[in-house]
């Protein structure tokens, strides 16, 4: 399931991130690529050990950790710190590739269940740079407003088309979910969204309150059954 989450970043946070990224020390993106994706990857990124990457990564993780739609859709157990990427016009793109199933980090491991791109450049400011994802319904091309993010199963082949004008800035990160199976996670997300809609209706119709309670109970019982914390 591919989920778009609009306006994750406030305009002011976006301005702050972009201003800090303009001063960053950008290095070759292949530094962290696996054997197969190194051949496909043509972009720049900030070294994960760079204090700036850590600081901005924490800002993004803090926002995600409080974002109801991200929490509902990803059911995150752990989120790998964002990698800041830059694609320049005329040279940069990322051919179709797979993300490694396991990422090593802080002496531990993270299983990549979900991949995400948080778009940081205004779509009007660059040409190309579409994120193409092989969804179960066929290829999807994603180019979102700055500050919005897309969440997709890490099992999908994906890439970024060449940038032909301007530059594309993005924060890319991976999530290990409490619910590993994409189909189960999708059922929980849809159920949770419906319960929340019903809860809004229940505010003006008392008779709905027991229904909301019963469905909320079902939601949590499914989480108990499917989550592996
Ligand atoms: O820049 C993007 O949107 C995706 C990057 C990507 O696929 C990766 O770093 O593995
Ligand atoms: Fe990738």
UniProtKB/TrEMBL annotation:
<feature type="domain" description="Fe2OG dioxygenase">
    <location>
        <begin position="78"/>
        <end position="177"/>
    </location>
</feature>
<dbReference type="Pfam" id="PF13640">
    <property type="entry name" value="2OG-FeII_Oxy_3"/>
</dbReference>
<dbReference type="GO" id="GO:0016706">
    <property type="term" value="F:2-oxoglutarate-dependent dioxygenase activity"/>
</dbReference>
<feature type="binding site">
    <location>
        <position position="168"/>
    </location>
    <ligand>
        <name>2-oxoglutarate</name>
    </ligand>
</feature>
<feature type="binding site">
    <location>
        <position position="158"/>
    </location>
    <ligand>
        <name>Fe cation</name>
    </ligand>
</feature>
<keyword id="KW-0560">Oxidoreductase</keyword>
<dbReference type="GO" id="GO:0006879">
    <property type="term" value="P:intracellular iron ion homeostasis"/>
</dbReference>
<protein>
    <submittedName>
        <fullName>Oxygenase 2OG-Fe(II)/hydroxylase</fullName>
    </submittedName>
</protein>
<feature type="binding site">
    <location>
        <position position="97"/>
    </location>
    <ligand>
        <name>Fe cation</name>
    </ligand>
</feature>
<dbReference type="InterPro" id="IPR041097">
    <property type="entry name" value="PKHD_C"/>
</dbReference>
<keyword id="KW-0847">Vitamin C</keyword>
<dbReference type="GO" id="GO:0005506">
    <property type="term" value="F:iron ion binding"/>
</dbReference>
<keyword id="KW-0479">Metal-binding</keyword>
<dbReference type="InterPro" id="IPR006620">
    <property type="entry name" value="Pro_4_hyd_alph"/>
</dbReference>
<dbReference type="GO" id="GO:0031418">
    <property type="term" value="F:L-ascorbic acid binding"/>
</dbReference>
<keyword id="KW-0408">Iron</keyword>
<dbReference type="InterPro" id="IPR005123">
    <property type="entry name" value="Oxoglu/Fe-dep_dioxygenase_dom"/>
</dbReference>
<dbReference type="InterPro" id="IPR023550">
    <property type="entry name" value="PKHD_hydroxylase"/>
</dbReference>
<dbReference type="Pfam" id="PF18331">
    <property type="entry name" value="PKHD_C"/>
</dbReference>
<feature type="binding site">
    <location>
        <position position="99"/>
    </location>
    <ligand>
        <name>Fe cation</name>
    </ligand>
</feature>
<dbReference type="InterPro" id="IPR044862">
    <property type="entry name" value="Pro_4_hyd_alph_FE2OG_OXY"/>
</dbReference>
<keyword id="KW-0223">Dioxygenase</keyword>
<dbReference type="GO" id="GO:0006974">
    <property type="term" value="P:DNA damage response"/>
</dbReference>
